[in-house]
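In response to reviewer comment 3 from the previous cycle, which asked for concrete evidence that the modeling workflow produces usable outputs, we include below a single protein chain processed end to end. The sequence was submitted unchanged, and the resulting structure tokens are shown without manual editing.
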Amino acid sequence: MNLVYGIKDRPRLIKVFLFAVQQLLAIMAATIAVPAIVGNGLTASAALFGAGIGTIIYLLFTKSSSPVFLGSSFAFIGSMFSAFGGAASLAIGYWGLIIGALMAGIVYIIIAIVVKACGVSWIDRLMPPVIIGPTVAIIGLSLSGNAIGDLMKSSVEGGSTYVALICGLSTLAVTMLCSTYGKRIGKLIPFIQGILAGYILASVFALIGHVTGNPSLIVINYSALTELDFSHFSGYFSLPKFTFLLGGTEGLKGITGSYLLTLFAAYVPVAFVVFAEHLADHKNLSAIVGTDLLKEPGLTRTLLGDGVGTMVSTLFGGCPNTTYGESIGCVAITRNASTISIWGCAFLCIIVSLISPLVAFLETIPACVMGGVCVALYGFIAVSGFKMFQQVDLNKNKNLFVASVIFITGVGGMVVSFGKVEIRTVACALILGILTNVMLSKEPENN
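The workflow returned the following structure tokens.
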């Protein structure tokens, strides 16, 4: 891919700001979705703050050589529920989130040490293109249901699915047109233009709905903005509800040995599963930017950045982090790999998390508008995997079986649970692909 801006390029300040806003819009929905799902007092503002801090740590460890944002990980949602479910009180549960993230981060650090000692050549042997290509494609395809679900979802009860679909498809259309036909800076910020177009259209429908008394036209929910109390300072600026503050000193006193074992069983196995996704994401990003990130800055550094970033992020936001496919898709579509944009997004997340009206505004962006953007983002991830798959010789039975196993288990949405540990779709597909490849590795050459 011919990049407009390479990893070390430094666009002008105004462009950096726009690129940072675009990255923020791309990762925002998923980042704040995790605390919304887990509940128990976790907030969107704290998740944004934690994601910003975690990404800064990742960039420091990788020497600003890996252009990807770290956001809230969906893989750890079950683990986070276990932290609260096994706790005698909410205060203990908050510290359970932090301790669980420390355990997961330690797993990353141990793997990083092993990689440092043994190198990364074994990874290329373990996961050749016939495995990595389909797995990357599955990352995008496995998210397709989420994109379509949001595309047709109203953010207000009683809102029409058709109105939501019109707003979502309009967002997608503007994004594609701007990316394809845009000039200069317009070509580089298609997501900002698409989201603004979708937001404005949804607002127009909402205005008509209110005037005519037709609630089916209202698919955008402004309650996050209307509920702000500007008579108090908190209506303008507020410190997020950080996890360690929610837990307090009382929470630490209630932690028991059995609770620590519960956290170990809930977090550590999932960390190994997310490691597989970490590899696939960085392989995908490597293909996009034209640099093998597993060698430079190196898998050791990316793992340390991800692991330590997760530890610190959870201390503030409550959500373990992971490299975001939305961020990678944004790099692929805009062809902007400048890590300055990621730095800007990280700082912007922190700033936005402190400004109440900005957090509220982001929460009002309709699900259907974000769904329209995600159709493009997730699609580009899938296509990136198919491009990596082009170099595979499908005349060999082994390759056919490996690809078949990955595609079918991935598209079929295979998920395996062992007690409180859940192996999600991408990890299932990757693990079965590796096992199939090893099992058939002795295929005769004439086959």
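The longest strand covers residues 70-72. We consider this sufficient to address the reviewer's concern, and the full set will be provided in the supplementary archive.
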